[in-house]
Amino acid sequence: MAKLNLLQAINQALITAMTEDQKVVVFGEDVGHFGGVFRATSHLQEKFGKARCFNTPLTEQGIIGFANGLAAQGSVPVAEIQFGDYIFPAFDQIVNETAKFRYRSGGQFSCGSLTIRTPYGGGIAGGHYHSQSPEAFFSHIPGLKVVVPRDPYQAKGLLLGAIRDDNPVLFMEPKRLYRASVCEVPQEDYSIGLGKAEVIQEGNDITLLAWGAQVEIIQKAAAMALEDGVSCEIIDLRSILPWDAHTVAESVMKTGRLLINHEAPVTSGFGSEIAAHIQEQCFLYLEAPVTRVCGLDTPYPLAHEKEYMPDEYKTYEALKRMLNY
Amino acid sequence: MNDRNHLGNVSVTHEVRIIENGLLDIPMLAILDADGTVYPQAKEPEINQQLAIKMYHTMLYTRMLDERMVAAQRQGRISFYLASTGEEAAVVGSAAALSADDMIMSQYREQGALAFRGYTSAQFMNQMFSNRLDPNKGRQMPIHYGDKALNFMTISSPLGTQIPQAAGYAYGQKLAGNDALTICYFGEGAASEGDFHAGLNMAAVLDCPVIFFCRNNGYAISTPAEEQFAGDGIASRGIGYGVRTIRVDGNDPLAVYSATVKARELALSASQPVLIEAMTYRLAAHSTSDDPSGYRSKKEEEKWRLKDPLERFKVWLLNKGWLKKEDTENYLKEVRSDILTALKAAEKVPVNPISDIVEDVYSEVPWHLKAQREALLEHIKRYPDKYPKTAGEVGK
Q1: How distant is the Cα of A29 from the closest Cα of chain B, in angstroms?
Q2: Which residue, B65, B151, B137, B140, is CA-closest to B105?
Q3: Radius of gyration over alpha carbons of chain A, in Å?
Q4: Which of B213, B253, B280 shows the shortest CA–CA distance to B47?
């Protein structure tokens, strides 16, 4: 098994999908010959030709509108939005078209074959417009699936899962991990089904929940807590919509405590939905209030990026407060 | 890698000269005059009697359907309707030039294209009454038709979203090697949406076999064209995007048909988009929720009534000896009764079962929607008199 970084894992997943199915078409800004600004689509145009991997004009609404039509026609589009921060011109196409195609036509037409890839998140000195985590906006759109991988192994399996899933998927890639996260990734084909969280460490005292790049933050906080003799259960949510409430609730019923960590601003972040649901399901099991450790309700800052981030120290502090509640 | 030169086609001048609007002359193709005679310099399209009569009948049908359904809305039988009166030639003339394999992505005023493809009165009515025979399963407002078998994409209300989608659909047709293209209808108002610009540019750059068909009917609800754009209509934009473009008299079925035949041939053979701007007039209100007397004069409407596409087409057909007056009368009688029978039948058909409310959101019903459905059914059971349409299904 080779060690790959997250970009290489995505590239390998795209090669697998394009080799397996002639109908898979990859496109976006700078995605063609150049291979994307992060190189996730490197050499795809060489391998599969310009008709199946190409540049588009600089128009996010055009890219997703085009992708919707292509999906409805029966092709399998994998559209790239260069940064999650720039997805908003395509919001109408995603909310009103991608996600409603199947429902509004009574299942006659759908955009089920569509996957939208986009890098998201901070920690790369990208300021307001190269750092946002907009997953909560997309968690409010019935008909769409939203998926976030935490490492290269997950990225390959979940991206193949997303491309093969018969529903439109927004696949959000933690760009801070693009080159930083490296792990063993099987060369062979595998896919991970969507909608399932993963318990990546079992524990008894508290459940720590995150997704994407923040999973390694809660892992670090758990290691700090272990020194104090605290046993943390760690869950990677993986799918934001639909999300695996069952796995989370089961864990909380065991530990009695839930800490949610996400990079996006705390107010109306996806943590709010999880907190509401878990208090409904696990009210009598809770030993402490469900706690969120998240980004501030500010635009994503540049000079104070480190202070803004819901890092392992903030997580560790919150965790201690919960245990002493 | 080849060296590029983006100045390659740019000529040089030494004079300070700002290019003014209106330098480009985009004429309007006209074949059939408003009086039903062919302009002396014009060439009639190759069209046989059978097709011409089918076009005329479809236009008549559409007008009858519109009249009947506006009345049905006034009577409170359906919630909403949107007539295409005055624009029948633009829609039917273009639809007649297509192959049945071509995908139609319409805006919402293209019932004529659907009728031309063979959509029956019963199908129109089932959609408008949102009953369980509606293929959309009663999920959309009246007139949001869609029919996979007829290659007619289900309509959505947001304006212009279908324009970049049409580029994508056409790209897929090309990739699959289909001998078919996509036609995309929209109005001059929708052409102000970002999706118009995105879609035309994508189609031009990515060589998509798509016909963009703009019905320039002078109004976007109440907003007149001169408050919508300052340039030379929509056609000039096509040229700006490098899209082959033609402007036609949208009330002239022969001009629309000729232009669309040519556009189709070009779009398929060159794998390129073509833009058609059909100059027409919305004689109808925007919808049954609109009253045009607030924003335009009767006199203006009268002027356009004289250019009625049905009248001129009828005269042309009569002169050709392809149509007899009594044929039309008989056809109208038949259509009237067909529409009325379908209407009466459709309003008696119940809506889809309530359990369907969570179907088709995803390919399979996920856990949270199952739970929400269960809770809803329990609730309806408790308050059956508050939900009379569905209480009968859920039992006690």
Answers
A1: 12
A2: B151
A3: 19
A4: B253
CA-angle at B257, arms to B252 and B258, nearest 5°: 100
**CA A122 to chain CA centroid, nearest Å:** 13
Best residue in B123, B131, B143, B165 to probe A by mutation, most A CBs within 10 Å? B165
Q: What are phi and psi of B117, to 5 degrees?
A: -75, -10
Surface-to-core class of residue A293, CB atoms within 10 Å of its CB (0-12 exposed, 13-18 middle, 19+ buried): buried
Annotated catalytic residue, options A29, A60, A173, A273: A60
Give B172's contacts in chain A (Cβ within 8 Å). 69-70, 73-75
Given A185, A217, A247, which residue is the final one in a domain?
Answer: A185
Cβ contact, residue pair B201, A166, below 8 Å? no
Is B99 within 8 Å of B123 (Cβ atoms)?
A: no
Task: Spot the catalytic one: B117, B237, B247, B282.
Answer: B282
**Strand ranges of the sheet holding B274-279, from the earlier edge strand across to the other edge:** B28-29, B244-249, B274-279, B210-216, B182-187, B103-105
pLDDT at B295 over 70: yes
User: Across the strands, what pairs with B91?
Assistant: none
Same domain, A152 and A217: no
Domain ranges of chain B: 28-346, 354-394
CB-nearest to B169 from A57, A62, A70 is A70
Same domain, A163 and A69: yes
Beta bridge partners of A170: A116, A146
Using CB atoms, pick whichever of B144, B205, B367 lies closest to residue A57: B205
Q: Residue holding tokens 């002359």?
A: B25
To the nearest whole Å, the CA of B126 is away from the closest chain A CA by 13
Q: How many Å apart are CA A318 and CA A258, to the nearest integer?
A: 11
Q: Looking up tokens 């190409």, which residue turns up? A: A54
Catalytic: A202? no
Q: Report yes or no for ipTM above 0.95.
A: yes
What three-state secondary structure class fits B59? helix
**Residue written as token pair 């925007």:** B286
Residues A20 and A119 in one domain: yes
pLDDT in tens, B184-243: 999 999 999 999 999 999 999 999 999 999 999 999 999 999 999 999 999 999 999 999
The better pLDDT of the pair B389, B197 is held by: B197
| Smallest CA–CA distance from A33 into chain B, residue | B1
CA distance A270 to A250: 19
Q: How many domains does chain A have?
A: 2
**A191 within domain boundaries:** no
Among the listed residues B74, B295, B379, B382, the single catalytic one is: B295
pLDDT tens track for B109-158? 999 999 999 999 999 999 999 999 999 999 999 999 999 999 999 999 99
Which residues on chain B are in Cβ contact (under 8 Å) with A102?
360-363
Asked if A75's CB is within 8 angstroms of B139's CB, the reply is no
Nearest-Cα distance to chain A for B137, in Å, is 5
Domain B28-346 fold = Rossmann fold (3.40.50)
- pTM of structure: 0.97
Q: What is the dihedral of CA A285, A287, A288, A291, to 10 degrees?
A: -50
How would DSSP label each residue in B116-181? Answer: HTT--HHHHHHHHTT-TTSTTTT-S-TT---BTTTTBPPP-SSTTTHHHHHHHHHHHHHHTT-S--
Nearest alpha carbon to residue B126 among B108, B144, B110: B144
